[in-house]
Write a structure and sequence with these properties.
The structure is a single chain. Strands 1, 2, 3, 4, 5, 6, 7, 8, 9 and 10 form a 10-stranded mixed β-sheet that branches. This protein has 5 helices and 10 strands, in the order βββαβββββββαααα. The protein is 21% helix and 40% strand. The N terminus and C terminus are likely disordered. It is globular and about 50 Å long.
Length: 234
Amino acid sequence: MLLCAVVLGPLVARAEAPAPGPVRGPWELVRSDSGIVVHRCKVAGSSLHAFRGVGLIQAPIASVLAVLDDSDHRKEWMTDSIVNARVQRIDPLNEIFYSRTGAPWPIAHRDIVCQAATTFDPVAHQVRVEIFSTTHPAYPVKKGVVRMPFLRGHWYLWPEHGGEWTRAEYQIHVDLGGRLPDWIMNRVTRQVPHDTLVGMRQQIKRRRYPEFEKRAAQVPDYQKIVGTFRAPPR
């Protein structure tokens, strides 16, 4: 399964993220199991659907952010990940990363360069990590690997159970590129939100990040998000 993940920097500053891409039509249910609900939606100007998965994670937001930040162990929870490398830290909450995912023969591997921008919104009681494809001279198009034309996605995180748990939303809209027909790309991508949330749950149980979580707890906007918790609208 082709899968892209996100990285982010230390939680010490606020960064502005770009606006999400337009969607049209209602969100349609794709699957609901393992406590994860996946929907799809049409995107203006594209034949490829956006897919969104929502589920609870039995750990605070800081733990989720710590897993996303851990560039040394992403392949432990990212399905079919071959390479996932931090390329450049633009500022404390903006980062560029390179991702390559495997595919069964005779389909070529896919890769992409993305930027991740993290923001804290105390009013909405939400942490947002926006992901969008970009370019970087250190990672040009490689022979034998298909560069994905675009990717747009996000992690949205809300506190649950007094901040002890996290309600996570992972959304992705991606063109896998190459000669794959659109219906195959939609079929592949529909698995990504579910598998990504399952992988996140497993990785949080596998590893602990006490120092990262301690730093997160000291960020004023994080304190406002978790300390003045209220359930988000359903």
